[in-house]
Amino acid sequence: MKVGDTYILAKTDLPMFFAAIGHEMRLIAPRAFFGGDVIFDIVESPKEIVWNYGHDIYPPKRFLLPHYEDMFRYTTGDDVRIEPLPAPPKQAIVGIRSCDVSAIRFQERFFGDQIDDPYYRARSENTVLFSIVCNKPPKRECFCICCDSGPYLESGFDVQLTDLGDRYLYEIGSEKGEQATQLGAFMLKPAEPKDTAERKRIELQADSLFQTVAYMAKAIMFVSEDQVPAQVWEELGSTCFRCGACTNLCPVCTCFTVEDRPEPNGCFTRCRSWDSCQFSGFTREASGHNPRPTFGTRVQRRFYHKASYQYILRDGRHGCVGCGRCVSACLTKLDLPSVVKRIRRAMHKYLQPQPASPNSS
Amino acid sequence: MVDKPTICGFCSCGCALYVEPAGSRVAALCPSTNHPVSTGRLCFKGWNAIPGLMGADRLRAPLIRKGESLESVSWDEALSYAASNLKRIISTSGSNSVGVIGSGKLTNEECYSLVKFARQVIGTPNIDGTSRFYDASMVPALLETIGLAASQVDLDSVARAGSMLVVGANVMEQLAHVGSRIQDAVEFGCKVVAADPRVSRIAPQASLFLHPIPGADLIWLRALLKTIIDNGLYVETATEIAGFNDLRDSLKDVSVKQLVGECGVDAEEVRQAAEILSNNPPVVVMFGLGVLQQAGASDLVKALANVAMLLGGSVMPLRGQNNAQGACDMGLATEYLPGCVPISDEQARQRWESVWNCKLTETPGMNAAEMIRACASGDIKALMVFGDNLVLSAPNSESAVAALEKLEFLVVSELYLTETAQIANLVLPACSFLEKDGTFTNIERRVQRVRKIFEPIGDSKSDLAIISLISRLLGFELSDDPETVTREISLNIPQYSEVSYLSLESDWGKPWPIDGVKAAMCPVESILQAEDPDYPLRLISSRIHYHQQTGTICARTSILAREYPESFAEMNEREAEKRGLKAGRHVTISSKFGSLTRMLILSDAVPEGCVHVPHFFGGDSSNMLASQECDSKSKTPVYKAIAVKVEAAK
Fold this sequence. Notes:
The complex is a heterodimer of chains A (361) and B (650).
Chain A: E1 6-10, H1 14-24, E2 26-32, E3 38-43, E4 68-75, E5 81-84, E6 91-97, H2 98-113, H3 118-125, E7 127-132, E8 159-163, E9 167-172, H4 175-182, E10 189-190, H5 193-207, H6 216-224, H7 230-237, H8 245-249, E11 256-262, E12 268-274, H9 280-283, H10 295-307, H11 309-315, H12 325-329, H13 336-351
Parallel strand pairs in A: 2-6, 6-7, 7-8
Antiparallel strand pairs in A: 1-9, 1-10, 2-3, 4-5, 4-12, 8-9, 11-12
Helix pairs in contact in A: 6-10, 6-13, 7-10
Chain B: E1 6-7, E2 16-22, E3 25-31, H1 44-48, E4 63-66, E5 69-72, H2 75-93, E6 98-102, H3 108-122, E7 127-129, H4 138-144, H5 155-159, E8 163-167, H6 171-174, H7 176-187, E9 191-195, E10 206-210, H8 217-230, H9 244-250, H10 256-260, H11 267-279, E11 283-287, H12 289-292, H13 297-310, E12 314-317, H14 324-329, E13 336-337, E14 341-342, H15 346-356, H16 368-377, E15 382-386, H17 390-393, H18 397-405, E16 409-414, H19 419-422, E17 426-429, E18 438-441, E19 447-450, H20 463-473, H21 482-492, E20 537-543, H22 558-561, E21 568-571, H23 573-578, E22 586-590, E23 595-602, E24 610-615, E25 643-648
Helix pairs in contact in B: 2-20, 3-20, 3-21, 4-13, 8-11, 8-13, 16-18
């Protein structure tokens, strides 16, 4: 058993397989909530996993970069003590989609490359991803196909599963994936050429089923070359509801704020929680100066971070994986596909030569 | 993550959200995707302010005033202290010297129990909700016109509207889900006519934006009514509605030109508005606190309801507190019994007398604003406040504090040691909506299930439990079990007859039914406020984005509180120049009743002749400029269009 091997896992064995994994680590998977809602959460038994889920609003990034995370506790005064918190648990994220895997790889690079973030690293080292290929886009809002992050992965996965009807194609993509596979290896059979051929057919079919398109190449060009008139950004910003959902729910967004929280017993907990570049307080400097003073400039900042060459060079890819969560979470239409579309249209309007006024010679 | 969602308690949209608890802290939260309101989306409050409910400085034990300080005591001591003081005051000064003020932030069950507590246990008619300070003026006016003190439509109908009239509402900032539905509607061709003295954030959606001078809404609305009637722009069935002829006749002898006068909106704009609305059915008429806190608010609401009825449209009042609708339905207003039936209705009174086994007075008691004034005059000796920071919500903090300090006994049930709790004799630690069960009724009349996510922090208790414990010491059994109270509500309030915990286990909750209501049109007269040369400017008050109610929770949410490091007032550049005022400097804004100092910012969004003073965090609120006196007709305080002057700060 090694990286690159492909196997077959019968659907009837699936609960037993993940039960074996679950003996060694906690299982995180899409789980059914009230009224048809599905959210990635801890599952007690693999039977709870909803394999065929549509929309999951809350990205599994929160198991690596928690929405609200305690970092450590400390006491002040004569006896200053810093109390580290227990190491994060070992976990398998099961049923995660290609877009979210790509986003986690992005975040691992971000939190590990320049300044090592020990909190993120500890969680990511303890996490193995069992991702699933989307045979068809699970929801209308998906556009991973435009972002090179799905509906299946060529690389970057730990274990990738493809639904072949009565069985899954099981691909091992990393050493972490290989180690985790050992726990249930006795249930796997080697894949045959017809299985990989079937997988190929599904890939080709899935590619053609996307309804949402995002002109990523256009976006990268417009934004990197700073071609978008400020007025367009301000028009976009004027409709923003300033909720911060776009950055909260973006599986790629990494920004957080840090706060020391007093506890009733006199000690403090240092916490970090998701923050958003869409808030004015996010960029305001101590002097009071704000480099992003208007809503338009803050929307611009967000898209700069998603699509500018500068960040692509640093982060290895553009900052959008096409999961479509910004589409469904935005109270207005400031999701990536709509904004790129609106920029394109607006640029036609602004960049067309103005008709000469009758008074000019 | 807890398996079932609860309902957000910040605004009246009522989103369903999931919360993951970690001890007494929020570890994660997200909206429900399938819920008809949240649809996978939350606003800045839902996303950011929820953890602010579980802050480290939450009240954990009851506090009794001993001299200058408040000291922690046990619940037993607190309750017997409350009971003995109430008994003493009732026996020496009578039940009518006790006032009870609740809030539209409590659950339906708590509101209902509080009303029952006041009327049955204490025996006082002085029971009211703090929606008196926000939107209570709509209740009698809507009952008289559309026959319903609630919205006629749900949010889906807003998204499908053909045109809308939105008056005096900062809807994009304060009720994001309504704002979002307006944007959806506009995308499908809906035409929005907005009216606000200031250019608000609905501007990009508006086909026509009217800017009446503050306080002059009734003037242009009458002109709009006349234009619709004279040009035959009303729907055919409108003439069958009672009062149509009276309304037409009341506008017969004046011209539109005479009507509009100098109100800031001209006859041509009124004509355009009338045409846009009549050419694009279905029409939804919405109005917010800009209307409801004005002088003559009830006439304004009637005028707006008339517009909706003439055009065959619907009315959606934009209410402030999250459960304002439920509180009103539960009878948390001194003029009404549960079900929003006037207390003067003898049959209804007799029925409730038999349900509660007590005697009810025929006339209303004092409302919240009147109670505060009666504290000053000594007519109210004991006041019990549940879930509201009166010092900041009531008009004019300074005189409110002075009045409350005269009380013999002030009990405040709160999450945090608010400005009001600080001057109380007894502070009871209440728990937030994350720590209790019950129901809330949203802006669409949708009755939804609030679910307990956390155990109450420290020794805090739900208001329902607190009411029950105090009642017991006064010799009455009021249930502390929310489900039992829900059952009592559904048995006795016809609108809620289908509501049960069981039905809310398989359903998100439905708007309560509105069949069989009778509508009537109602003529209204307009009066222009007299100018006062000493106070030549009009106040435009609003709430800054990220701020909610009195700011108790938002100010404790660092991401929201950091957005505006300094409070400010806004003025038009020409107006500032005329008065020799400079941007970036501090100015003092004063009315006859109070004053406050703010940094001045220049803004094109504010018309000349006005100053815009938003509410800020930490109690810095334009309420300071208001008077305790109520508008004579609507019996609600006036916060809008107050005459003020602005001078450079000394």
